[in-house]
Amino acid sequence: MLAAIRSAAVLGIEAYDVTVEVDAAQGLPQFTIVGLPAGSVKESRERVGAAIVNSGFVLPPRRITVNLRPADVRKEGTAFDLPIALGILAATGQLRTTALEDCVVVGELGLDGLLRGVRGTLSIARRAAQIGATAVLPPVNAAEASLVRGLPICAPQSLAALVTQLRRGPPERATVAAPVARETSEVLDLADVAGQEIAKRAFEIAAAGGHNVLLVGPPGAGKTMLARRLASILPALTEQEALEVTAIHSVAGMLSAASPVVTERPFRAPHHSISVAGLVGGGGVPRPGEMSLAHRGVLFLDELLEFPRHVLDALRQPLEDGRVLIARASTAIVFPAAFTLVGAMNPCPCGRAGDPTGSCLCSASDVQRYRARLSGPLADRIDMHVTVGALPIRTLSSGMRSASSAQVRERVERARVHQRARYALLPGVHSNAGVAGRWIDANTRIDAAARELLAASAERLAFSARGYHRVLKVARTIADLDDAPSITSACIAEALRFRPVSAAGGLPSLTPA
């Protein structure tokens, strides 16, 4: 007897249809799974067999063949346990073959028949909604799936409970409590940072326009403290952005049952020993890396020049495209990676270059060799280069506090309103950093004096074409913060302040601005 159960699997962050076909034929007892199953899928034979018996059903001594269609795509994970078990019960006459006609079924089975959670539930739920099916999945994943509005969800506790429902009629719709947002363990405020007004202004511009920032300064100047507060001044995630971020974290297995939705901008700070695969993503079945986990948020690379150069250069294409393409022999997988990059580095190996006290002992060749670890093409893709000088002790002890994160975020959100209106007809563009520089040049009002200042500065400072347009985009963000309809000379002048002299040098001067 033949049975077919509809399921789904995740490739990248998108789900695709999988049909679990089960044939229970006469012959010597055998349990075979075909259709390019990975090791974790092959092991489901033992889990499914034990779960069926321990749930009070019969696993007859037949030749059981399970095919995962399409058979030319590799299957990975434990989500096929439940559809395989239901297929065996239907193929052996213990369940109606039509009981799950309009359902998409996923779930891992324990040996006792209880349902356990799986990765990528949100992507699978979105696919089920697209085809008008009911999602049958473990209770631990129900809250995550409920983020897809209007999706019927069935979330039984066990295989036995689900079969009991199906013998009575259609699967019962579960009542799912509204998902609870994850709470941050620490409240970080920009007002906690003493001094560094230029760096704070740079962060406000970066948050308003989505620009990348490089902080250069001695140890203890406050670079890390500043970077960890950038997320606190970014605008709140929209509903669509929250779904994108949640889907990525779901595929990576980073969601908990208690808080299955991400509502705050991610902040990722990997160690400098990270590999290219850890940063970009990869693996036998590719998983998102730190770049994708930082999607719509902040990727902070502390001690930037301690990262291997080939790891840093892997950032170049994602910084331009806002996505990561991982190519394999059989397929190519795309992960979103639209993040704001913040790098922090010392100006020299000892960290004291440019110190007015003259305490740096590094030779000129040591400094040049150290700073050459950051390639010119990558430095050119970082919109704003900021020197963070050491603070006088008097400044630290003064107790003066600057604007809070809430006050800065209010200005940032107002600037983003201008950008959403400006780019409403451009698909996928949400901020000034994400639009083509040519579009800004052709479709934004630029004062004649401002255009002349930018052209003259670009020639004198040997900007690349990319550098020219990045200055223009930063200036557009400054104008948005000022609620100005056009880019003025003052906007261009401030944007130039944060641009290195040349992409070849790639770094700002060692003296504070």
How would you characterize the overall build of this protein?
With 513 residues, this protein is of the alpha/beta class. The chain has a domain at 2-168: 2-Layer Sandwich (Ribosomal Protein S5, domain 2), CATH 3.30.230.10. Helix content is 36%, strand content 16%. The chain is built from 21 helices and 18 strands. The protein has a five-stranded parallel sheet with strand order 11-14-17-10-18. A four-stranded mixed sheet has the order 1-2-4-3. α5 (142-145) links the parallel β8 and β9 (153-154). The longest helix has 18 residues, at 405-422. It is elongated and about 85 Å long.
SSE inventory with pairings:
Blueprint: E1 2-11, E2 14-25, E3 30-34, H1 39-42, H2 44-54, E4 63-69, H3 81-91, E5 103-105, E6 108-109, E7 115-116, H4 121-130, E8 134-136, H5 142-145, E9 153-154, H6 159-168, H7 197-209, E10 213-216, H8 223-227, H9 239-251, E11 267-268, H10 276-280, E12 281-282, E13 287-288, H11 290-293, E14 298-301, H12 309-313, H13 316-321, E15 323-327, E16 332-336, E17 340-345, H14 364-371, H15 376-380, E18 384-387, H16 393-397, H17 405-422, H18 437-443, H19 448-460, H20 465-481, H21 489-497
